[in-house]
Write a structure and sequence with these properties.
The protein is an alpha/beta fold and 537 residues long. The protein has 19 helices and 17 strands.
Length: 537
């Protein structure tokens, strides 16, 4: 009960009690010895002109007034305390209806971070709920202003214009960590590695690398967390000023007698100069791009890397380190039909699914191991030690200055892209059922066998929903029941073909999600009668 309601109730109870007491007093006679109104011996304060019973009533009222004042003050203090707690809690917030990119755009204090991130390819991932999660350390506008001033730039626009594409990517990646970390988790871990491969350390003062302060932590978004910081990484410590040496006293010159002149010695011939050996040239850096270029069976993937502009970071000796699982030419050729239907963004995501930040030697590629890739998806090693889809490693641990390279015999395709390709295939050859029945027709068995192969090749643990849909013919209840029955029928067939039952769920949507609405033709209805496969969770 709130304090005001409690006080109102207390007042009502007191009024009732007081009226009852008053009636009791009114019913007493002055002959009653217990309240002899005229006897000063019964008074609390004999010098007060009131009778003893009146003094008792006034004293009780005074006590109740004091208690009411104390109670009201305590309740007000409690409310103020709650407000203070809210104010001191500060920072953070739940913005899970926004992506990281959307939050940077909306926050008035992070406009320059948003401008810088938009210059990179990573920004598209930060704008998608399906990517990540990421932890972003976003410098405030004041932080960028301080850096521009310190560098002698006229403004932040001039500072940004002076960055090359690679410098921009490196700066942004320095501020992003793969995974979702709250401030308390960062303090517990002590350090994390950014997408640029650099290490950030955290101390109890909530400082990054002992130099940059986290101003506003734990801003929760749909694809990660943002922490506002008051500097731009990497921070540079200010050098301590070297104290000027104290001046030494100049001794007073004491006149001395001039020495006798000595004869000049005969000049000696100068020795012939000796040749200085030339410095040995520095050894050229061996990068991942160098190692990949030396492999005769990686020519196709090298061309794809160049097309997407990913050869630049792999060719930078100072970048990384990275571990690359590179498909050989035969693997890329076998997947050419699937890859040909991919957009450039799909292709980029697929390539990034083959790259893991950090060093992963072949000895760590063991059953159950999990590695976060640049695509934001996790690479899970299967029970037999192979990569998703049964892809094997044929050449291991090719070393470079900026990482390791393994050659593999298959192309790793993210689960969502595999399911999209499967749905496109099923749309061309729909799964057929008997009329008003969940019985699968024989002509659809080959397409379901193909679906079982695709689902079995997904990364371990990928959850897939088999979704049944109908057209608008018939009533809603019947269509809902039919869609559920057909989805379950497909699920049971796939389990019979070896797909892990724990990874498959079935759901019916009746006529709720029509692809063609309104349905003008029988062809429209046929499009709406369908089975779809979607990644769950």
């Amino acid at each position: 009960m709130r304090s005001r309601d409690f006080q109102r109730a207390a007042s009502v109870r007191f009024s009732a009690q007081f009226n009852a007491q008053r009636k009791g007093f009114d019913s007493m006679t002055y002959d009653d010895d217990s309240f002899a109104g005229g006897d000063d011996r019964d008074k609390l304060l004999p010098e007060w002109g009131r009778s003893s019973d009146e003094q008792i009533i006034w004293f009780a009222l005074a006590v109740l007034a004091v208690l009411a004042a104390l109670f009201f003050g305590a309740s007000r203090c409690g409310a103020i305390s709650d407000i203070a707690d809210d104010a001191l809690g500060g920072g953070g917030g739940d913005f899970t209806d926004l992506t990281i990119d959307e939050y940077l755009s909306d926050d008035g204090d992070l406009g320059l971070s948003d401008d810088l991130f938009e210059l990179t390819d990573l920004n598209s991932d930060l704008g998608r709920e399906s990517r990540g999660p990421y932890t972003v350390f976003a410098p405030t506008d004041d932080a960028f202003g301080d850096v521009a001033d310190a560098g002698g730039f006229a403004d932040t626009d001039e500072f940004f214009d002076g960055l090359s594409d690679s410098q921009t990517d490196e700066t942004v990646n320095y501020h992003v960590v793969d995974g979702e970390y709250t401030l308390s988790q960062l303090l517990d871990k002590g350090s994390v590695t950014t997408l640029s491969g650099d290490v950030l350390t955290f101390d109890d003062d909530e400082m990054i690398n002992g130099l940059i302060e986290i101003e506003d932590a734990n801003i929760e978004l749909s694809n990660g967390i943002v922490h506002k910081i008051n500097g731009v990484l990497p921070g540079k410590a200010e050098p301590e000023a070297t104290p000027e040496p104290e001046a030494t006293a100049v001794p007073t010159a004491v006149p001395t007698a001039e020495p006798e002149p000595t004869p000049e010695p005969e000049p000696t011939p100068e020795p012939a100069p000796t040749a200085i050996p030339a410095a040995a040239p520095a050894a050229a850096a061996v990068t991942l791009a160098t190692v990949a270029g030396e492999q005769a069976d990686l020519s196709t993937i090298n061309g794809v890397l160049g097309q997407l502009g990913l050869d630049e970071p792999l060719g930078d000796a100072d970048a990384g380190p990275f571990t690359v699982f590179a498909p050989n030419d035969a693997a890329v050729g076998a997947a050419a039909g699937t890859l040909a239907n991919f957009s450039e963004d799909d292709l980029r995501r697929t390539v990034e699914y083959h790259v893991v930040p950090g060093i992963v030697p072949a000895s760590e590629v063991v059953p159950g191991a999990r590695f976060e890739t640049l695509s934001g998806r996790t690479l899970v090693i299967r029970g037999d030690g192979s990569l998703p889809g049964g892809v094997g490693v044929v050449t291991t641990d090719l070393e470079a200055d900026n990482g390791l390279l393994h050659i593999i015999d298959g192309v790793l395709i993210p689960a969502d892209l595999q399911l999209r390709s499967l749905n496109e295939l099923v749309a061309l050859e729909p799964i057929q059922f008997d009329v008003n029945s969940a019985t699968i027709r024989p002509e659809s068995i080959p397409i379901l066998d193909n679906a079982a192969a695709v689902l079995g090749a997904l990364p371990a643990g990928t959850q897939v929903e088999v979704a049944g849909h109908t057209d608008s013919d018939g009533d809603d209840v019947s269509n809902q029941a039919l869609s559920e029955a057909r989805a379950n029928s497909v699920r049971e067939y796939l389990i019979g073909q070896g797909v892990d039952a724990d990874t498959l769920t079935a759901a019916g949507y009746g006529e709720d999600n029509l692809k063609v609405d309104p349905e003008a033709t029988d062809a429209d209805k046929q499009v709406n009668r369908r089975i779809e496969f979607t990644e769950a969770g």
